[in-house]
Specification:
Number of domains: 3
Structural class: mainly alpha
Strand content: under 5%
Radius of gyration: 28 Å
Distance between the termini: 42 Å
Largest sheet: none
Number of helices: 15
Number of strands: 0
């Protein structure tokens, strides 16, 4: 499936629905420790933040700072019997030495130690850990590395409103929040939505009138409008500019150096390359490869060399007395951080130290 097909499907499915729901009506909520109540406790969301803050410095993955040979960052280590001792006894918080340590008032036994810079756990946190242990002390890997699971299709009570599976999930969440779908938007609103979403610009009065007239007699005019905005000029260029803008932000593009004198620089060729990549529907694997290593491709074209300008988008110094080694290091750190967040979806800033 090409980008055009994907975007067309998204526009057809999402646009008539997404603006019909009140802001926040189907959003996700963050929860405090006291609000968790009797709901399911999750290690990554509820327990790991506590252990990471209070325990992992001495009982985590760092071997150099680890004490007593104890690790609490994984199920096997935390429950392993060593000399008839295991910090956590799954299913039995009262028998778990970890609970005895975090609830003790004896300065020689309590954890975290009173002479550390860590505060004692709050009663809510102690209760959370006890409930977690009683439920079997289940650990889980980082959410970013969990394999996707196909969700079961919710049962819907409105087969007429739901035109596809995505609609079923939306309607189910709306029912949970006690809200119902709004009536279908009028033609003028639909037209404005699709123009703003795909081009970032509203339709002209003439374009709006033409769509309203066509939609009045033929509902498929909406699909034709989406196709037109994705495949005809000047909309193709406007759409490319609309889609490229978030990418330019992620890649930290700027027409100036960013610090000190903030002088201009000639990086606009890379910007134009990104626009053309969207305009020509360049395959994503090529889009990535040419930006990361376009200059390393055998017999690289000028466009591929320009694409590797992604790696030079970092801020640069104009200061005459700058220390070369210092800024070469800063540039390398910036490239690593950006590559990690943009292409891996992971923050690697901690690796700096």
């Amino acid at each position: 499936m090409t980008r055009t097909h994907i975007l067309r499907a998204c526009a057809l499915i999402a646009l008539p629905v997404i603006f019909a729901v009140a802001p926040g009506a189907i959003g996700f909520e963050t929860r405090s420790e006291s609000s968790i109540g009797e709901s399911t406790i999750r290690y990554g969301r509820d327990i790991r933040p506590i252990l990471s803050d209070r325990c992992f410095l001495c009982h985590g993955p760092d071997r150099e700072t680890r004490r007593a040979g104890l690790r609490l960052d994984g199920f096997e280590d935390a429950t392993r019997m060593v000399d008839d001792f295991a910090a956590i006894i799954p299913g039995d918080s009262k028998a778990s030495p970890l609970m005895a340590r975090i609830t003790s008032t004896d300065p020689d036994e309590m954890m975290p130690p009173p002479d550390s810079d860590k505060h004692a756990l709050t009663p809510d946190q102690v209760e959370l850990i006890a409930r977690w242990i009683d439920s079997g002390a289940p650990y889980e890997s980082h959410w970013a590395f969990e394999s996707p699971v196909r969700a079961a299709l919710p049962e819907t009570i409105d087969d007429v409103w739901c035109e596809n599976q995505i609609d079923a999930f939306i309607l189910d969440r709306m029912h949970l929040k006690g809200v119902s779908p709004n009536p279908e938007a009028d033609p003028a609103t639909l037209c404005r939505r699709v123009f703003l979403d795909l081009t970032g610009l509203p339709p002209t009065p003439e374009e709006l009138r033409d769509f309203e007239a066509a939609y009045e007699t033929d509902r498929s005019a909406y699909e034709r409008l989406v196709d037109r905005l994705l495949n005809e000029e000047p909309y193709v260029t406007r759409h490319a500019e609309r889609m490229a803008t978030p990418w330019l932000d992620l890649a930290r593009y700027a027409d100036t150096s960013g610090i000190h004198m903030d002088a201009g620089r000639s990086i606009w060729l890379w910007r134009d390359w990104v626009l053309e990549a969207y305009r020509s529907n360049k395959p994503f694997d090529h889009f990535v490869r040419e930006q990361l290593a376009g200059d390393l491709i055998p017999e690289a074209s000028m466009d591929q060399l320009v694409a590797s300008g992604f790696n030079r988008n970092h801020v640069t110094t104009d200061e005459g007395g700058a220390i070369d080694e210092e800024y070469l290091f800063e540039y390398a750190v910036d490239r690593a951080n950006t590559t990690g967040s943009v292409f891996l979806g992971l923050s690697v800033g901690c690796a700096r130290c």
